[in-house]
Structure formats: C-alpha cells, structure tokens
Design goal:
The complex is a heterodimer of chains A (about 250) and B (about 1500).
Chain A (H helix, E strand, L loop, with lengths): L1 H22 L3 E10 L16 H4 L22 E6 L20 E4 L10 E5 L3 E5 L6 E7 L3 E8 L4 E5 L7 E4 L7 E7 L4 E3 L5 E8 L1 E9 L3 E2 L7 E5 L4 E8 L5
Parallel strand pairs in A: 1-16, 3-5, 4-10
Antiparallel strand pairs in A: 1-12, 2-11, 2-13, 5-8, 6-7, 6-9, 9-10, 13-14, 13-15
Chain B lengths: L10 H27 L3 H23 L5 H29 L3 H42 L3 H77 L3 H6 L16 E9 L5 E6 L15 H5 L11 H31 L22 H7 L8 E2 L5 E2 H4 L2 H4 L18 H11 L32 E2 L3 E2 L2 H13 L10 E2 L2 E2 L17 H8 L25 H9 L1 H4 L26 H21 L4 H18 L5 H16 L30 H13 L34 H4 L3 E2 L2 E2 L1 H13 L17 H13 L5 H8 L7 H14 L8 H7 L4 H4 L20 H17 L36 H8 E4 L3 E2 L2 E5 L1 H8 L3 E4 H8 L3 H10 L34 H24 L16 H15 L2 H4 L1 E3 L1 E6 L2 H17 L29 E12 L3 H7 L7 E6 L3 E4 L5 E4 L4 E5 L3 E5 L2 E2 L1 H13 L16 H5 L8 H4 L2 H9 L19 H18 L17 H17 L3 H25 L2 H26 L3 H10 L2 H11 L26 H6 L2 H9 L30 H13 L1 H5 L2 H10 L4
Parallel strand pairs in B: 3-4, 11-14
Antiparallel strand pairs in B: 1-2, 5-6, 7-8, 9-10, 12-13, 15-23, 16-17, 16-22, 17-18, 18-21, 19-20
Helix pairs in contact in B: 2-5, 2-8, 3-5, 4-5, 13-33, 15-17, 17-28, 18-19, 20-23, 22-23, 25-26, 25-28, 30-33, 31-32, 32-33, 34-42, 41-42, 43-46, 44-45, 44-46, 45-46, 47-50, 49-50
Classes of the chains: A mainly beta (about 250), B alpha+beta (about 1500).
Chain lengths: ~250, ~1500
C-alpha cells in the first residue's frame, strides 16, 4: 500500500516537473573555465613504467593524469554538469534538439598504455567501447558502485568490448591491472547537460534550460570541486550565455 | 434374649447421622469438584481459549482479502460458469444414455464388475487346466506301457482343446472390459473436461482466500459456543474436561536426584505455556489483542486502540458478510458453521506476565517446533531451562525472574518467592544459554553457518575462560568415569606431547578414558625471565599488573578488598610486601640457575642420578628405585640446558645468527621509522596493539589496531629492562627483544607467537623502535613510583614461620631456631625431611645468606600456594597440579555447600545496589542509576545479583566470586595461608572514547565488565557434568565435526587476526519492496555479466558451484545471504527514481561470498552470482552475523593507500572505499580455501610456510603448531567448504587429480585432434605443426653433430625420432590423408603442447604478463608462479578461477577474466572455445612438470623465450 502511495506521489511529482519543463521554451548557454589554483605550480609527474617499456614508452614518457594542467593553467578532464537546484534526482527539461544522443558509441582506447581519452562523459543509452588498438594485451577493470557493478575483462591486442552503463551519481573508475598505473574515468548522465573541460580547461553546455539551476563539478584528483555534490547555484538567462570560472585547489582534497 | 426387631441403635438417630453424613459427603464432593475447577492451571487454560478466540478472530479480520474482492468475485463468476458447464455436460451425458445418468453409470459399473469377476474366474480355471495339462504331458512322456501312454495322450489332447477354448473366452472378456471402459470414458469425456476446468478455477480461488479461510475456520472453532460454556462449568468440568494437564515424557533425559536412581523426566510446562509452538503467538500480536481503552491508558494509546478497534470491527463485519455470502448463498463448504463465528472482534487484555506465558518460543525453526533440531517432544523444556517440570503451578515450577522488575511483577501477580526445594531452579533468561553446554560439548559447534553464533553470550564466556586461563587452576574435565559430560579444558602435560618421543606420546595417548589435556598455559614461560626484565619491575608488576598495563589478562593478587594493608590484622600487615619481594626473588634466582643449568629441578635429579647409578651398576636397585632411575634419566633428558642469550641468538630456523648480522643499536630517525614500519606491516598488529602506531608520525600513517590476542606493547620499553648487578643493561635487554622477535620459541617453547621470518637486522630495527617508545603518562608514573618496600629480616622470619610451622617434616618446637640460622641439625629439627622438600633450601646456609634463603623459601611457597604455575612455566613446578576447585560440575553445586560467610554485609558496605545495569533503550549504555552510583564513589551492584546472594543462590555466589574473589574473607579472622587465593580478574577492556569523562568511562567499564562476567558465569553455570544419553549429545557428522574442531585451532593461533575466514551471514525479510530492490540490482548486474560462466539469467556451466548457482530460497519471504565487508549506504538516485523508495532509508550493502537466490516480484527465482554487491534495506535485516576474521587486512588497506597512493589506490566512495591492489598484497581471505588448495599442500604449508605471492608485504609466519593442529586446520577448510558447497564434490584429506590419469592424457589428445577436424582446422594445423617440427628437426640435427660422447647418442636418438615424425607428418599432409594426419597429431600429444603454448608463449600468452611459468619469466611478477598450481591448487577450483576470478574471491581481484565466455581469443595458440581453453589451461597446470618436460615444449620454450 505504502509503495503504491509513494509511487503515486512520485508520479504526481514527475507530472508537475514535466509540466514545468513543457513550459520551458527558453534556452541559454553555460560556459566557463577551470584553472589550476594549487599553492604551488603544477608539475607533471612521470610514471615509472615497470613492464612492456618498449611499447608503452614508444610514444614518449607517460605522466600521471590525476591532474592534467595546460600551459595556461587550464585543467583538463573536469566533469561539469547541471542539476536541479533542490532535488538532484529531478529530471531537467530537455531541448528538442537534444532528445536523443548524437552517437551510439563512445570509444575509450588503450593505444600506448594509457586510456585515451582519459575521461569520458556519457549519456545513458550510449555504449562505451573498451578498445585495445595496441599490440599488447590489456584488461579493462571497471567499478562504479551499485548502479554499475563493474567487471574485469581481458582485451587482447586489437580487441574490443562493449560496456553498457547506467546513469549514476558515482563515477565509474576504469583501470588496467596488467599495467597498474593505467586509470580512466567515466561518468554517465541521464540528460545532455554535461561537459568535460578541454586542454585549456574550457567547457560549454549549449541549449540549457533557462532558469535557476546548480552547476556541479567533479575532478578525480580533488573530487567535488565547488559546493560539494550539490554544486553551486547559477541562473541561466534565456538566449544568453552565463560564464562560470572556477579554481581547482588540490589542497582542499 | 428373645429375638426382636428393635434395632440396636435408635433408628431416628441413625437416620439423622446418615442424613448428615450424606450432606457432608455431598458438600465435600462439591468442594472437591469446585477445588478441581480452580486448580491454578485451569483458569490459565480458560483464559487461553479467550486469547485464541481473539487472536484468530483478529487475524481473520486482518487477513480478509478486501483488496481482492473484485478478483474473487470475478473468479466466482468463472466458477459459476464452469459449474454451469459441468451441469450441462452432465445433462448431455444423461440424454446420451437415455435420461438417468446415475443409473446408467451404476449399470456400467455393475457390468464392469461382473466382467471382471468373470474374467478372474475364467483365469483361475485356465491356470488350473494349464497346470493339469502339464502334469498329463509329463506323465505321458514318462509312461512306458503303450496303452496307458495313449490314454494319457488323448486326455492331454482333450485338455489342450479345453485350454484353447478358455483362452479364447479370456480374450473375449478382456475385449468386453475394454469396450465397457471406453464407452464410459467416451460418454463422460466432456463432463470430465468441464470438471477439470472447474477444479482449476476452484484451486485458483482457494489460493486467493486460503489464508483467510484458515483463520476463519480457526476463529469459528475457537469461539465460545454453548457446549463449551457448559462443559467448562464448575463440577461439570470434572468430567471430560476440556482443560487438562499437558505433559512430555522423556525416558532417556533423566533427572539425577543425587545418589538416587535416575528418574524419567516429565515436563508439564506446556500446561500453561499453551502456544509455545505456535508461530503466530508473538508477544506483539498478543499485546495487540487489547482493543478496549482503559482508565490507565495514555491518551495516545486510547486513540490508537480506538482507531484500530473501529477499523478491525468494520473489516470483520465485511469478513463475516463475505463468509455468509459464501456459506449461505453460494453453499460453499467452508469446513465450519458460519453461525459459529463471533458477532464482533473480541478484545483481551493481558498483563506482561501473561503475554510472556502465552507467547510462542522464539526462533521456532531452532527450538520446540517438531521440525526443528530441538523438538519439544524429544527435548522437553527443563532439559535446557531447568526448573521442576512436573509442577503445574508457578511457584512449584521454580521459575526464576531475570531482573528486579520481573521479580516485582511476579511477586505481585504470582506471589513469587524463591523455591528452595528444587535443586535446579529455572535458569533466568540471562543465563538461558548455559543449558546448551549439556549437549554441545565442543562449544564451537554452537557456531552455525560459518560465522553465526547461536549462543553468543555462552561462547563469549567460553572464550574468556579459555583466554584467561581459568583452567590452569580449575580443572574442567570433559569426561566423568569415561562418559562425555562437558567441554574439556585441561592443561596439557608437561613436557608437551610434541616434545616427547613417539613412544612416550603413544603411551600417554593410549588411555581413552583419560586423554591428556590440550590447553597451553596462558602466560609466558618464566624460565628465562632474568634475561628479559628485572626484579624491581617484577615486584611492581606482581603488586599491580593492571597499573602497568591496564588491559592485561594477568589478575590481581594483592591490594584487594580483604588483603590490603588497611584491613589486614596487625601481624599480617607486612606479609603482602614480603611475599611479593620473595616471589620476585625466587623467580629470578631460579631463572638464573636454570640458565646455568643449576636449577633445583636439575640439581635434584642429578643428585638422584648420582645416588642411583652406582646402585644400578652394583645391581642393587629395588623395583621402586629402578623406576625412579628411569624417570630421573628421562627428566634430565628433557631438561635441555639452555644457551644464554648473552652467548648466542638464533634465527627462525634455530640456527645461530653471526654476531656481525645484528646491527648496533640505533636511534636514528630512519632506523626507527624502519622499525615502526616493520612492526606495523609485518603482522604484529594482528595480535598486539601499540599506542606508538596510533598516531601518524615519521611519514607513516596511523594504525589504530585494537587486537588483544597478545599483550598490548605500548609500555614494553619499560618492561624489557634487564639488570646486571643492579644496573640497567640495555644491550642485554635489546638482545632479548631481538631474539623474541626472531624466534620466540627460544624463550618460551610453548608460545603461540609465530616466527615472522624477519632477518636479524630487521628484528633489531623492530627492537630499537619498541625500546624507543617511552611512556610518561601520569598513571604509569604513579605505578612506577610505587616500589614494594624491601622486607626486613624480621618480616621474612615472620612469614617463613607461618610456613615452617606447617611443614610436615619440621619439628615445630625448633622453628624459631631454624629461622635464626637455617637447619643445622636435621635429626632434631626435621627428622623426616625428604630430599625434594622446599625446606631443603634452608639447610646448611651461610650466615650472610639467610635473607636470600628465606626469600627463596617464602617465594617458592607463595608460588605454590597461589598457583602462579597455572599460567606460567616456572622452574620447580614442573609437575604441580591445579590448585582450584574443579569446575566441571560447578553448575549444579549444592548451594548449601557454598560458604557465603558474611558476604551480604560486605556487599552492603562496599557497593550500591542498582535495579538494572543497562539503559533499557540502549543496552550498550549503562542505566542512569548505574552511572550515578559510580559518581557517588561506590561501585554499582545489580540488584538481581544482590538478591541472589541474599537468597543463597549459585548465581549470587559465583557473581561475587568473580567480581571480588577475596571478599568472602570479609570480617573473618584468618591465618595468612588460610586466606582465599583466587585472584581478581578483569575480563573487559573497553577503550575510552573521545571526550568521555572519567565517571562515564568508569561506568561504562563497570558495565562492560559486568557483561563479560555474566558471559563467564553463563559458561560455568552450564558445566553440570550430567552424563547425557548419547542420543542427545550433539554428535556432528564428520564434515561438520572437522569444521567444529578446526575452529578451535583457528582460535588457538588467531588465524582470523589476519585472514578473513568465514563470510558474514545475513537474514533478510523479503517484502515486496525488497524484492523490487533486488530485482533492480539483478537487472543491473545481469546487464554486465554477459560473458560469465554461470549466466545470471540461467546458470549454465558451473551451476553446481555455489559461486554461481544457489537453490531457490526455502522460504521466499526470508532470504539468507553470505557476504563480506558490509557497509551502510543510502539508495542511489537511480534506485530512488525507479522504485520510489525513501532516499534516506538505509541500505545494508555487502559483497556476496556465495551466490544468492531470491524470488522476484513476478515470482521468478533469480540468482545473484558470488562477487557482486547487493544492498538490502537495513530495517529488513532480521539477523546479522559479521564475518569472521580479516581485521589486520582491513586495518592495513587504508594505511597502505596512504603510504603508496600510486600502487595502492583506493577506489569507491564512503564505506566502499577499498583498494584491491592492497588486498592482493595482504594476508589472503581464506573463504573457499578448502575448495582452492590441495590438502597435502596445505598441511605442509602450515607446518612450514613457503612464499607464494611475490608482492606481499608480509609472509605467512611459522606457527608453533603440532601435526594434529595442522591436520585439524586442513580438515576444517575441507569440511567447511564441502558443507557449504556440496555441488563441487570436494574430497579431503586425500585427493585424486583425475587430470593426471594416463587415460585422461590420451583421451584429451584424441579429443583435441577431433575438435580440430570438426572445426575444419586439421589441415592447417597439421601444416603449421609440420613446419614447427621441421624446425625442431634442424635444431636436433645441429645438436646431434655438435654433441659428444654419451650425449651424442642421446641427441642422435632424438634426431631420429624427429625425422620419423616429420616423415609421417609430411606424408599425411602431402597426401591430404586426414586419418593419418589425425593419428600423427594425436601421437604428438598436440593438446598438451598447444595448452602449454596458451600458458607460456613469451609475448603472446597473457599469463606471462603477471605469472612466472616454471623457467619462463613473467613481464612483471604480480601473481604466484604457475608451477605452484601443480601441487597447490585443486583442479576444479583452478578451472573456475580462470573462467572468472571475480566470483571466487572476497574482493575484486586484479586478475581479469582472460577467457570471457563466448569470445574466441588466443586461437593462434590453442584452438577451441573459451571454456575449452580454460579446461586446457587447467589440464596443463595439473600436469605442469610433465608437460613442460615434453621435448616439443622444451625446444619450443627455447625458441620463444630467448634460449632460457
């Protein structure tokens, strides 16, 4: 009985939210940049490669990717997304052009003993392809909490596997146990309003619903970047662009 | 006198007397009947009828399927239609047969019966004729006379004809019968179909209303009816009363009435506890029966009752209407009269006492129920609970209240008072687990399902007794005149069995009626104490062990309530100090003597040998002396003279360490850090704790271990201080510690501390760090400043006098003289003194030695008096016997034989009684009054035990004996050596929490201690030493017994300190929402597991292994799951969104150790494989037993992650945070160890562990373990896994590896070639193999040319063989002759070489990324070398492991799934499906030496691994 009731309430709520979204005809853009705010300048850290050196170091040294900071201080691979200001589980209104994801598959390759790209933001429904284009064997070991239980599979040279993931608030961590230093990250969303910062630390979310929302950022080295898992409130103006700049402070970790 | 009819007595008077006596008789009869009507159990039973009535009626209302009425009505309609159909069909039948179907059917049946009878009849005739014919034929053939023969022949012919006729008739009848049946069934076909349909619908209907109908029927039966009222009336109920005594007769579970004969047990408890076996009668349900508001109810309660009553009545009305509709209108057969139902829901108000009386026994699955392991018919009640079972009244049954509140309640309600006339009053609820000991002698057999403790309090008590060494003084023998009577806890013999010769061991083990004890002494050996510490420290320690180490197990002997200086009489005031100094003196003197080979034991035996040997040589030995000589020689043989540490330190193997290998002492930061790191990482924290590691420092993370198996080492530096001539000797102190860390067996041969495989330099670093950890807190300083004052000679004499006066050989008149200068003239002073008397030390002493000799004498006496040797190995007490009362039958000790003395006065003077110990809302917190009592400065004392003490009950005595054992001396005028000797133990050692005040901490400590004390009492009260009929003893079957016994060894060596041994057990209520939650998780998991070998959708390959398969739950509403690493978390947004659950509701989440089945909302059975995480609602978890073991690994994971974040990265969030790489490098979980390893290997490994995994931070240490211990552990793992995972067909302690069979070898070879052919790969593989062989041939040719002498011949032979092989292959390939090619490849054993390629091709085989395969190196060694698998791993486990490693381990292993099901990988190395490849890998591993040695593999390895 109770479950019925709560289901009814949820349904009712959903209707209300949906009704709201149906009315949202105004859309704006969120833009911004995340820069390094550490006390000392960022220094890339070389990885000590313990096996398959010939191949792994064939394209140059490998560096730890916990932080990837560009020359002008931009931090790469910060996940940025929007979420309802009060209820993190509420559905966001979706722009008609974004109803469906553009591509079906997103590839994470292991060409030279690192995951390329190192971080991926996915929309639920897209399939993650774990690929190994290198001449040596790798495995892909992913763990993502209750929503994405994970598995650990071998990908022989030239092979690939398909991974279906669910939208989740927990990130999915990807690693290769054969080469212990290899790490990658995937986050899966059930809406299109997310982005990853580029090498300059820049990101852009287009066609976002106008109104008051929260912007959430997460980066593997520090975790939640600003305002914790709830994020920080922003107001998205209709047909305009709002800019959000953020400093990444590894000391806050 | 003439006869007269005048009566002898006056008739009238007689009539009056008669009349009066009649009236009297009538009155007494009435009185008797009336009294009988009111026998105490009768009102109880009458009331119970009300309870039943109310309960079932309420249930009926509750179960009324209100929400399904529509559905039911729809089914009714269906049923009506079906019935109509049946009716129609019947009518059709009737028309078909011409009107009356019944008559026709009867006719058909009659006809059938007639035919059958006729058939039987004819058949009988036929049989008899056939036999007559046979006789005739027989006679005819034997007849000699022709006429006769002919006659017989004719007769035979006639018979034959007759038989033929009969046969025809039989066939005819058979045909008629079949026809009859056909006609009947044809005619009824339609009707039958309609009837079947109807039955199915009715079945469906029954499912909808079943629950309701059952309760409705019960309600109708139990409602009071006129007949019931009548039969229950006074007087009437004297005849055929509905109320009677219920009783269980137990002829084998006798009661032992002292020396009388054992008498059968009659338990009448169920006379009043009427619902003891009825599941629905829970206390909550009984309390809910009360619907009427009463004056004393609170407003809230009144409101609740009102709403509940109204709702129920409303519902009930509907329900009755529903029943009436069915019974009256629809004419359903309900099994009861509708009129019997009550008009409204009755209300019954029960007192708490009544609720308890009428409620069912908890956990019916385990107790009372006839399907449980303890059915009431077999075990009765008093067997476990005690009390007088034959009584039918509360008082006489000897009920015992559990606490003060209950006592008050009973006094009010039952006029309760202690019942002294029954020897075994009922056990109060808090001690109810004591009853288990009677039949569960192993104690560990009370641990079910691996980690679920069925009697946690009792087990805790048992463990405390074991850990604190109570058995050292109090023998707890498991045998009484050869019969098993209880747990066996006795000291092992000295010397230990392992230190004896095989012959001597066999002798000791030969007597089954008196097997040797098995428990080691719990304290350290004191033989070498002088190398470890000093006399000053020892004095302070004896004076107050807990002052130095608050959580030590060593009890207090001094400064107790009745032997401190304040309360002792004037003449005894100095005794404690004198005695302490003397004990310390004795220990150190004997220790030094032991190290130089001059201890008293050795000297005495050497003296005897000197005396006896010449006699032997002269042949003058008496029998007694001959025996003594053997014994003396044996003793001297055992007493190996030790090498002092000053001269030599030995390593873990017992070899002397070169002095140069031990670095000099260092206090450099780096060295100290190294020491701390070794101490932290090498496993010390699995057993010890140390304050020094609890704070981060020296670049190392904090590790707050709470292990308490070994001593807390925080203040070790203050203890290990050796004195040389009164001065500190740091070098010697350090040497002792280094030796202890390197090989503790040197100083303490029976220690359970293992050898940790440290190098001497490492041991030195650990020692340096430990010795650098100074403490200077206030508590320690107080203790340290308080040395025991040195005794004067006068004091020594006074105390020595006490003993000398009692010494049997000493002349009491001369004692004072002896005390002045020792024994000078034995003839007058001690004429009878024996050679081994303690007094010998005072013989012929030098004048300056008197003080020391007196100290030695007093020390020796004191050690013996107080039984120090019960826990410590002390020279001079090699053969001493336990000094305490045996405890094996203490649980039934007659309280009249306990000396309560003035104890009540003592308790009144020293304690403050408090009604309850715990806060009723939170049992972990002390009650408010308890805390207040602590604040007042007096110790709190629970009223329950005070009452028990006042009432002279066992519980009271025992409680006080443990709390303050000496207190029974209170106000007694006692001589020193007559005083009580039992020391004061403290069992609980809680840690102060942050910000906890002194009083709060004290109150909590006292409460924890009270709890622990109760646990110990629970065990001791259970020791009743009653020989139980073997039928009742828990005699586990072999596998279970192996588990039970092995668990004891696990505990003995603290295996669980490092290893996770058993997963936790979780029982979960599976309500609708839980099922939905599980289904969602299952869907999520299923999505990711498409390549698993037991597909979550339908287990396929390894369904019999419980890592993949699980039977459907026995009770779909109650799930049992095995899991590890539980954590609490909130539902994920996805779960909230999809299931509409409260986002704040807690989920308990764990990783499944076994597959778990559940029933999903659509009633489908679904299975989670092992290794996935499952979350269930915390509030639906019915019972939770945490996993057993693994503390050290859990402690180390965050530590390692902090130390090396790159290598040991933490994954996950919150409770989940963990690092699987760290787990890989820590002691492995032993869940499935029995499945994993070969028993022989495990046995050898346990006795002498060798390294396995290359990267671990610590190695398995070498334990001081006997063969029997190792065997028990091997069997434990075998037995436990066999029980838990029957599908895998585990065998132990022996194992055959079928893969090593010659036949198997050939079969695989043939099979593989067949597989190649089937896949169309035969030709290609033949070609490539030919090429490979040709290459080998070339190499062989070269080798043959290069080789010389003997080797040449061999090389040539190889070359020739290869040439032949190449020739055959080439021909087969060239001619495309498949049969010949097959034969060649089969002979080449291609399966085995291809399998080897799969494992060991450099650059291609995936295995070599992480594992070494024999001589073929790994890229980077991350796992054990694979050749270990040959001797270590079981074949099945190996196969399953390679198929999907994640299923079999309790953490996500770094080893990937290398052969995902359904994917074709590595085909260039070996052809076949992934499962076939897994099988090949297993086969090769199980034969690795043989396979690696195949010529083809040798050369192939050389070719691919760079010539290694």
């Amino acid at each position: 009985m109770r479950s019925l009731l709560s289901a009814a309430v949820t349904a009712a709520l959903a209707v209300v939210v949906f009704a709201g979204s149906a009315a949202a005809d105004d859309w704006g853009t969120v833009k911004g940049r995340v820069t390094w705010g550490g006390k000392s300048a960022y220094k890339p850290e070389k990885i000590e490669v313990t096996k398959d050196q010939e191949h792994c170091l064939g394209k140059g040294d490998l560096f730890r990717e916990e932080f990837v900071v560009g020359k002008n201080g931009g931090v790469k691979d910060v996940f940025v997304w929007l979420q309802d200001a009060s209820d993190p589980t509420a559905k966001l209104p979706i722009h008609p052009s974004l109803k469906k994801p553009k591509t079906k598959e997103v590839v994470m390759d292991q060409p030279c003993c690192k995951f390329v790209p190192h971080a991926i933001a996915l929309r639920e429904g897209q399939v993650l392809i774990g690929k190994n284009s290198s001449p040596i064997a790798h495995n892909m070991h992913w763990l993502g909490g209750d929503d994405n239980p994970g598995d650990n599979k071998l990908i022989p040279a030239g092979g690939q596997i398909e991974i279906t993931l669910n939208a989740s608030r927990s990130p999915v961590e990807v690693k290769c146990d054969i080469h212990g230093w290899m790490k990658g990250w995937v986050r899966v969303f059930n809406h299109p309003y997310f982005a990853l910062t580029d090498a300059d630390g820049k990101f852009e979310i287009k066609n976002a619903p106008a109104g008051k929302y929260n912007i959430v950022m997460w980066q593997e080295g520090v975790g939640w970047v600003n305002g914790g898992k709830k994020g920080q409130p922003i107001e998205i103006p209709a047909d305009k662009t709002v800019e959000v700049d953020e400093k990444l402070k590894p000391e806050d970790k | 006198m003439a006869a007269t009819d005048k009566p002898y007595r006056n008739q009238y008077r007689l009539d009056v007397v008669f009349g009066a006596s009649c009236v009297l008789l009538l009155l007494t009869t009435v009185w008797m009947l009336y009294d009988d009507h009111n026998r105490p159990f009768k009102p109880i039973q009458r009331k119970f009828r009300d309870v039943e009535d109310a309960l079932y009626t309420q249930q009926m209302a509750e179960k009324f399927p209100q929400d399904r009425l529509d559905k039911i009505k729809a089914v009714w309609e269906e049923a009506d239609k079906a019935r109509e159909k049946v009716k129609k069909a019947k009518e059709e039948v009737a028309t078909k047969v011409g009107g009356d179907a019944d008559a026709w059917l009867k006719k058909q049946a009659l006809e059938k019966a007639r035919l059958e009878a006729q058939y039987q009849d004819t058949k009988a005739t036929y049989d008899s004729e056939v036999s007559l014919y046979n006789i005739l034929v027989d006679q005819r053939d034997n007849a000699t006379e022709p006429g006769h023969k002919k006659k017989l022949d004719e007769a035979a012919q006639a018979k034959k004809k007759l038989i033929a006729e009969l046969d025809k008739k039989l066939q005819d009848l058979q045909r008629q019968l079949t026809e009859n049946e056909r006609v009947t069934s044809d005619t009824l076909a339609e009707q039958k179909k309609a009837e079947d349909e109807l039955a199915a619908i009715e079945d469906n209907l029954r499912k909808l209303t079943n629950d309701f109908d059952r309760t409705a029927k019960l309600s109708a039966q139990k409602s009071w009816k006129v007949g019931d009222w009548f039969r229950a009336l006074p007087i009437i109920d004297g005849f055929a009363s509905p109320y009677k005594i219920q009783q269980v007769t137990l002829n084998d579970l006798t009661i032992e009435y002292g020396s009388f004969k054992d008498v059968p047990r009659y338990d009448r408890c169920t006379t009043c506890h009427l619902a003891i076996d009825r599941g629905g009668f829970t206390p909550a349900a009984l309390r809910r029966l009360d619907l009427e508001e009463k004056k004393d109810d609170s407003e809230q309660v009144k409101k609740e009752k009102k709403s509940r009553r109204e709702a129920l009545q409303e519902r009930y009305k509907e329900a009755v209407k529903f029943v009436k509709e069915r019974g009256d209108d629809r004419k359903e057969d309900l099994g009861f009269k509708v009129g019997d139902l009550a008009s409204k829901v009755p209300s019954v108000r029960l007192s708490e006492a009544q609720v308890r009386m009428y409620s069912a026994h908890p956990r019916l699955g385990l107790f009372v129920d006839s399907n449980s392991p303890h059915p009431v018919e077999k075990f009765g009640c008093t067997t476990c609970h005690a009390g007088q079972g034959s009584a039918t009244e509360f008082y006489f049954a000897a009920h015992t209240p559990d606490n003060t509140a209950q006592k008050k309640e009973w006094e009010k309600e039952h006029k309760w008072e202690p019942f002294h006339d029954w020897e075994f009053p009922m056990l109060p609820a808090r001690f109810v687990e004591s009853g288990c000991v009677k039949c569960h002698h192993q104690m560990t057999d009370l641990i079910r399902y691996g980690s679920q403790e069925e009697a946690p309090k009792l087990l805790r008590g048992y463990n405390l007794v074991r850990e604190n060494g109570c058995f050292g003084c109090h023998e707890i023998s498991g045998l009484k005149s050869g019969k098993a009577v209880g747990p066996d806890l006795r000291l092992e013999p000295w010397p230990a069995l392992e230190q004896l010769t095989a012959d001597e061991r066999a002798k000791i083990l030969a007597d089954p009626g008196n097997p040797p004890g098995t428990m080691r002494k719990v304290g350290p050996s004191l033989r070498r104490i002088s190398e470890k510490t000093n006399e000053v420290w020892a004095r302070k320690w004896i004076n107050s062990p807990r002052g130095f180490r608050p959580d030590t197990r060593m009890p207090h002997f001094y400064n107790l309530s009745t032997n401190n200086a304040d309360v002792l009489p004037q003449d005894q005031k100095d005794y404690p100090a004198t005695e302490i100094s003397s004990i310390a003196h004795y220990l150190f003197e004997e220790s030094q003597a032991y190290l130089t080979g001059t201890d008293r034991f050795r000297r005495f035996n050497e003296d005897r040998l000197k005396y006896l040997k010449p006699l032997e040589e002269r042949g003058q030995l008496s029998d007694k002396q001959a025996k003594e000589l053997i014994e003396v020689r044996r003793r001297l043989e055992i007493a190996v003279k030790p090498t002092p540490l000053a001269l030599q330190i030995v390593d873990g193997d017992g070899k002397p360490v070169p002095e140069g290998d031990i670095p000099a002492s260092s206090d450099k930061a780096d060295d100290l850090k190294a020491g701390r790191q070794l101490f932290t990482e090498r496993g010390c924290l699995a057993c010890h704790s140390h304050a020094g590691t609890e704070k981060a420092g020296a670049d190392l993370a904090a590790v707050a271990g709470e292990a308490h198996f070994g001593p807390n080492l925080s203040r070790l530096a203050e203890k290990v201080v050796v004195h040389l001539k009164g001065q500190k000797d740091p070098v010697a102190s350090r040497r002792w510690l280094i030796q202890w860390v390197l090989n503790p067996n040197v100083s303490h041969p029976r220690t359970r501390m293992p050898i940790m495989h440290l190098k001497p330099a490492e041991a030195a670093r650990v020692a340096d760090w430990l010795l650098s950890q100074k403490v200077d807190d206030r508590e320690f300083q107080e203790w340290n400043d308080k040395d025991v004052p040195a005794p004067t000679q006068e004091m020594l004499k006074n105390l020595a006098r006490v003993y000398l006066k009692k010494a049997p050989a000493v002349n009491t008149l001369k004692v004072d003289e002896v005390l002045e200068k020792g024994f000078t003239d034995l003839k007058t002073e001690a004429p009878l003194m024996t050679d081994d008397a303690d007094e010998q030390v005072l013989v012929n002493i030098k004048p300056g030695d008197l003080n020391d000799k007196l100290k030695y004498y007093i020390g020796k006496k004191a050690v013996g008096r107080m039984g120090c040797f019960a826990c410590h190995d002390i020279p001079g007490y090699e053969y001493a016997k336990p000094i305490g009362t045996p405890l094996n039958d203490w649980g039934k000790k007659d309280p009249a034989r306990l000396a309560f003395e003035d104890i009540v006065a003592f308790v009144k003077a020293n304690y403050q009684t408090v009604p309850a110990r715990d806060d009723p809302t939170d049992k972990a917190k002390p009650a408010k009054k308890w805390t207040e009592a602590v604040k007042d400065g007096k110790k709190p004392y629970e009223q329950f035990f005070f009452d028990a003490l006042e009432g002279h009950m066992r519980e009271g005595f025992l409680h006080q004996k443990i709390e303050d054992p000496r207190s029974y001396d209170y106000n007694r005028d006692m001589k020193w050596d007559d005083r009580l000797r039992m020391p004061q133990f403290r069992f609980a050692h809680p840690r102060r929490t942050d910000g906890e005040g002194d009083d709060e901490f004290k109150a909590r400590t006292d409460q924890a201690e009270a709890e622990a004390r109760e646990a110990v009492m629970t065990f001791i009260l259970g020791l009743v030493a009653e020989p139980i009929h073997p039928r009742y003893l828990n005699n586990p079957p072999p596998d279970r017994l192996a588990e039970v016994k092995g668990r004891q060894v696990l505990e003995k060596f603290n295996c669980a300190g490092c290893h996770l041994v058993r997963p936790g057990v979780y029982e979960v209520r599976a309500d609708q929402q839980t099922r939905e939650l599980l289904k969602l998780s299952h869907d999520t998991v299923a999505k990711g597991l498409s390549t698993d070998y037991g597909d979550v959708k339908a287990p396929i390959d390894f369904a019999a292994d419980n890592a993949w398969g699980a039977p459907p739950p026995a009770d779909p509403d109650r799930l049992q799951m095995f899991g590890v690493r539980p954590g609490i978390r909130k539902p994920t947004p996805r779960q909230v969104e999809q299931l509409g659950i409260d986002p704040d509701r807690d989920l308990l989440r764990f990783r499944l150790a076994d597959a778990a089945a559940f029933v999903d909302p659509a009633r489908q059975v679904k299975v989670f494989p092992a290794g996935v995480n499952v979350g269930v609602f915390k509030d639906q978890v019915v019972s939770e037993s945490r996993s057993f073991g693994g503390t050290f690994a859990d402690l180390m994971v965050p530590y390692l992650a902090k130390k090396d974040l790159t290598k040991y990265k933490m994954e996950g969030e919150g409770d989940d945070r963990d690092s699987n790489t760290a787990r890989r490098d820590l002691p492995p979980p032993l869940v499935r160890e029995g499945e994993r390893v070969q028993p022989e290997w495990l046995f050898t490994f346990l006795r002498n562990p060798t390294p396995i995994r290359p990267q671990v931070i610590l190695r398995m240490p070498k334990f001081n373990m006997s063969d029997d211990d190792a065997k028990a552990l091997v069997n434990y793992f075998g037995g436990a896994d066999k029980l838990r995972n029957p599908g895998i067909g585990l065998t132990y302690p022996y194992l055959t590896v079928p893969q090593r069979d010659e036949f198997y070898w050939r079969e695989r070879s043939a099979d593989y070639v067949g597989r190649l052919e089937k896949a169309g790969e035969l030709e290609a593989r033949g070609k490539s193999y030919l090429e490979e062989t040709q290459k080998r041939l070339e190499a062989a040719r070269e080798a043959a040319t290069a080789a010389k002498d003997d080797a040449k011949k061999e090389a040539e032979a190889q070359r020739d063989a290869l040439e032949a092989e190449v020739k055959a292959l080439k021909e087969a390939v060239d001619t495309k002759n498949a049969a010949r090619l097959k034969k060649s490849l089969e002979e080449a054993q291609l399966y085995w070489s291809d399998g080897y390629r799969l494992l060991a091709t450099t650059g291609k085989s995936i295995c070599l990324d992480c594992h070494r395969v024999g001589a073929v190196k790994a890229k980077e060694e991350q796992g054990p070398p694979l050749e270990l698998a040959f001797s270590r791993l079981r074949p099945d486990w190996t196969e399953h492991w390679m198929a999907n490693p994640d299923r079999l381990l309790t953490y996500p292993t770094p080893m990937p799934q290398n052969f995902p099901r359904g994917q074709l990988l590595f085909q260039e190395l070996m052809s076949g499906s992934s499962l076939e490849q897994v099988g090949a890998a297993r086969d090769v591993l199980m034969n690795l030496p043989k396979v690696a040695d195949m010529p083809v593999n040798r050369s192939y390895r050389a070719a691919t691994s760079g010539g290694k």
